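BUG: 3D viewer hangs when loading the predicted structure for this chain

Environment: internal workstation, default settings.
Expected: structure renders.
Actual: progress bar stalls at 90%.

Input used:
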Amino acid sequence: MCSFCHKPQWEAERMIAGRGVNICSDCVGLIRVILHEQELPEAVVPELVERTHALATGAAADAVAVRERIDELGDILMRRSFYSIWGLLSFPERGGREAAQVRLLRVLGAGAGATVWEGERARGPVRRVAVKVFEITRVTTGLHLWRFLRGLRAMERLSDPPLPGVMEVLWVSQDRLSFVMPLLHGDLRRFEGPEAEALRVFRGVCEAVHAAHLRGVIHGDLKPANVLLDAEGDPFVGDFAFADVRASARRSVCEDDLGTARFCAPERLQGQEATVAADVYSLGKILCWMLTKEPPPFGPNVLDGALGAVVTRATAEELQGRYPSVAALMAAMG
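Structure tokens produced before the viewer hung:
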């Protein structure tokens, strides 16, 4: 696992191992850019690695002081270098910066780490938009900001070219830590269609999530509220890549009766990183909820037959007992 972003080794393209410290290739690249752009002393990184290792292994004589120093070093590497890292991102600005200006109309919802507004753009192909604004005070400390930037990198991979069924990012604002998406009204929490329609919608969700997995992006917070429906009832999966930011910003992960905790894999509730297996688990919970109209946790044998068997395997407590991929889950559905 990376000592900086906590990415598991099997998800990293490359992992550099040190004395008790691992750094993934993504973090190495960011650190090099930061050192180059900000002309920071090379000693910053070794000191950060050394102190992180001391804290993790219990070798630090004064854990409080070491943690404070780590925060200071993280501030040097992250907050003061934020805008140089923005230059590495290549989100398309549809119509240019002028077309991206948005007038905020009303708050659609607010969570522990962000507020979602309904907005209106004066120009551009999409006029009515949703604007997600992340609270700067909640993402600019060390690990929060690192995860936020990693989330932006993930969104970049999803946007070029855009994936069917995944909410497309129209524009990203560095000034407000926000991004703009098409506004869709309604999500799976209001879904009341018959079984055939439920299976069609669910398969669309699975296809979008699987396509994201193929690009190396895990969702980590799949639930009915994150699956939006357009006027034709086709699903669009939103909120990719920022589950770690949200989870680290709140103490309780249960937001409402159909919130995160009810659809979250058990290992995620214990603080582990998001994986393909975690997304498979959440999809199994969503499928059972769509077919039974009962919120989890579900009782035994709540769903019979072949679909019940699919749900049972997808939501196995142990990671090894679940489908190895979303593609395997879809294949089991027939």
